[in-house]
Amino acid sequence: MPHDPDPPPAKKFKPGSVFFRLEKNKPGMLLPRKGNVTTPIDVQRKQLPIYQAKPRLLNELRRLHNAIVIGETGSGKTTQIPQYLFEAGIGRQGLIAITQPRRVAAISLAGRVAEEKRTQLGKLVGYTVRFEDVTSPETKLKFMTDGMLLREAIGDPLLLRYTVVILDEAHERTVHTDVLFGVVKAAQRRRRELNKIPLKVIVMSATMDVDLFSEYFNKSPVLYLEGRQHPIQIYYTKQPQSDYLQAALVSVFQIHQEAPQSHDILVFMTGQEEIEALARTCRDIAKHLPDSCGPMVVIPLYASLPPAQQLRVFQPAPKGCRKVILATNIAETSVTISGIKFVIDTGMVKAKRFNPDSGLEVLAVQRVSKAQAWQRAGRAGREDAGVCYRLYTEQEFDNLIPMTVPEIQRCNLAGVMLQLMALGIPDVMNFDFMSKPSPETVRSAVEHLELLGALERKDGQVLLTALGKKMASFPLEPRYAKTILVSPDFCCSEEILSIVSLLSVDTVLYNPPARREEVLAARKKFTSSEGDHMTLLNIYRAFKKVGGNKEWCRENFVNSRNMGLVKEVQAQLREICLKLNLKLESCGVDTGNIRHCLAHGMFISAAELQPDGSYLALDSHQAVAIHPSSVLFQAKPAYVVFNELLHTSRCYMRDLCLVDADWLLDAAPEYFGRKLHITRS
Ligand SMILES: Nc1ncnc2c1ncn2[C@@H]1O[C@H](COP(=O)(O)OP(=O)(O)OP(=O)(O)O)[C@@H](O)[C@H]1O
Questions:
Q1: Which of 111, 466, 537, 568 has its CA 20 to 30 A from that of 316?
Q2: 95, 162, 164, 183 from 198: Cα distances, Å
Q3: What positions does the domain Helicase C-terminal occupy (predicted)?
């Protein structure tokens, strides 16, 4: 049976809150299907639920320094409030920043708002995301990832360029958002003390813990935008599903066979591998369906796709063709994908988990929170009534946790700590966190950074070292930053820059399972017995040698667009190196130096082969295994460093490099002396 959705979990209203009761699903307000094709954009703006509340909303926002805005998904918060403020002259002395947890949202929202303002993107309306800045001196409305605003705060802790900061999708509680909350709050207070232009802080979401947020932001009033433009029907399965991928596949084809061809489908899944696998299966099945079913285009969407490929989901499907988007949670908040009528929610997500005792951070598949489930449903019903199929029972939904546990309480804090120290906030435990990380997690992060040489203790105080300061200049995990910084000692900075850039992009290889034999044959000439890093480097070198030739990429199963992105990332990292006066040189064919350097920077993520053929992570003493995708899967070397751990049926190391025990000992003699019994060869 279909269920009308409850309002999202922000149902508890605080005394003294301001309500803007919007008309619910007023029939005349429905946009025509694919409304943005036929309805002029300024009419569309006026049809949004938020428009009715505009004058009162502006009155409130004009007088308040802090406000919390709660409105249902699709009510128009993100696209309209920045424009309303700008049009009303609020915060005109500086910029209005709108932060998003994800880059795809920041980019697409900036595009939409620029279109609504009839201006070229990068002029009045722009965006800044990692490795990309599309703004100009004219920019007043700046969409950005929360991580980017945080980086700006390192150079300008008072955020003086900004008069308004809108922290959007605050319920997501990414590490960056949580740190940003504290940074923005401190900037606001300091500016008041110094008599500078005040900073207005607006926190927005459809699904957040209002009390917690209001309390944290100086007991700020809550402005509720009630009502939604288009209804969304929710369906649950009758029985729990043991195989959510199979259930998703069946649902896609059921809809495909029954629903009008112009209704597109968005499926929420957990990660790249399962998305690519399901995409192939869908394409194969679609080929064999009767003509009456009509064609289908299947488009993947996950974080490691290059931006241009991510933005493909926003393009309309070819006429008469159904668009099926298979996405991770990067499409969960903020985005509007034109044409989406159906959302299929598997109820699963891949998220980080950190065990401070073992020091292990792993990625693992787990159930979503209710807040996430509502956000996912909210991706339907943006241009017209929508439908969300939850591939779990209503009872399972009831048992979900209400809000996602803040990332700060479940991830390795080393990177955040480094940024906080660079921001001049030494006492991290006393930093004004909305939800404090556990003392063990902080201790573990301090230890991690000390080991990397980023922190030192002096007179009982923990201080940032010169190396730590340099590490904070890179938008990278501390161990990668360290690897780059030590690379001149091994005369291989060019190679390390290439490797780190390749790892930042993640998927330069294309592995269609149906052509497994061909892929293996093509890869053979690049495969290095020294591991995945060296193999990737060989491929990158070959790619550059042929000038990025597309035909070569096709023949060698290399993703040419991602390779293009690697080049961009590398150029930006190189720029940072030049600013730091780092010597850039190549070691040529001597791969020993490169691996030695990797061991030096990544020794915290090292593992040792055990007599029974298994591996032990040296830091945590936890059993780990080599992921089957690694070129070292069969080889089983004695010592490796790895990039990440993936928890599925076992804890797998991904992207490995063969190293010598001596190098690990040299990198951190005391640490390894304490932790294990490596003996020098
Ligand atoms: N790129 C786009 N193309 C077409 N319509 C869009 C686009 N972006 C926004 N819209 C329209 O504007 C509406 C409001 O979008 P907006 O992102 O401002 O809502 P919101 O209240 O912030 O929702 P959410 O909490 O889900 O982010 C959408 O429902 C859709 O109708």
A1: 568
A2: 12, 9, 9, 15
A3: 251-424
| Cβ–Cβ < 8 Å for 270, 348 | yes
Pocket lining: 334 vs ligand 1, CB cutoff 6 Å: yes
pLDDT of residue 16: 44
Q: Is the CB of 74 under 6 A from ligand 1?
A: yes
The pLDDT value recorded for residue 59 is 94
| pLDDT score, position 631 | 93
Predicted local distance difference test score (pLDDT) of residue 193 = 95
Eight-state DSSP code of residue 294: -
How many other C-beta atoms can be found within 10 angstroms of the C-beta atom of residue 629?
14
Q: Is 609 helix (H, G, I), strand (E, B) or coil?
A: strand
565 CB-side CA count, 13 A: 23
Region of residue 591 (left: phi > 0; alpha: psi -120 to 50; beta: else): alpha
110 pocket-lining for ligand 1 (C-beta < 6 Å): no
List all residues 6 or more positions away from 642 whose beta carbon is below 8 Å from its beta carbon: 602, 605, 606, 607, 624, 653, 654, 655, 656, 657
ipTM more than 0.90?
yes
Closest ligand 1 atom, residue 112 Cα: 1
Tokens describing residue 408: 């700060």
Q: Which tokens hold the place of 415?
A: 């990177």
Distance of CA 312 from the midpoint of ligand 1 (Å): 17
The per-residue DSSP string of 184-237 comes to: HHHHHHHHHHTTPPP-EEEEEESS--HHHHHHHTTT--EEEEE--SS-EEEEE-
Query: What's the pLDDT at 360?
Result: 60
Strand partners, 455: 464
Distance in angstroms (rounded) separating the CA atoms of residues 31 and 44: 8
Which atom of ligand 1 is least distant from the CA of 382?
A: 29
Q: Which token pair is 298? A: 């299947």
Alpha-carbon span 400 to 390, nearest angstrom: 13
Nearest CA to ligand 1 atom 8: 336
Which residues have a Cβ under 8 Å from the Cβ of 350 and sit 6 or more positions away?
270, 271, 328, 363, 364, 365, 366
CB 90 within 8 A of CB 61: yes
Centre a 10 Å sphere on the Cβ of residue 184 and count the other Cβ atoms it contains: 25
Where the chain has pLDDT below 50, the residues are 1-17, 19-37
Q: What spacing in Å lies between the alpha carbon of 227 and ligand 1's midpoint? A: 14
Report CA(75)–ligand 1 centroid distance (Å): 7
Question: Tokens representing 643?
Answer: 């990039």
In whole angstroms, give the CA distance from residue 106 to residue 126: 9
pLDDT at 428: 75
The token pair at 105 is 């949202």
pLDDT score for 33: 32
Q: From ligand 1's centre to the CA of 45, what distance in Å?
A: 10
From the list 512, 487, 510, the residue with the least C-alpha distance to 498 is 487
CA distances, 125 to each of 97, 148, 324 (Å): 10, 16, 30
Please list the alpha-helical segments (H only) found in 473-525: 478-486, 493-505, 516-524
The whole-number pLDDT of residue 85 equals: 97
Q: Is the dihedral of CA 432, 438, 442, 445 positive or negative?
A: negative
DSSP tag of 242: S
pTM of the full predicted structure? 0.77
Locate the ligand 1 atom nearest the alpha carbon of residue 205 and give its number: 25
Q: Which atom of ligand 1 is nearest to the CA of 108?
A: 1
Tell me 531's DSSP state: B
Q: What pairing do the DSSP bridges indicate for beta strands 623-626 and 615-617?
A: antiparallel
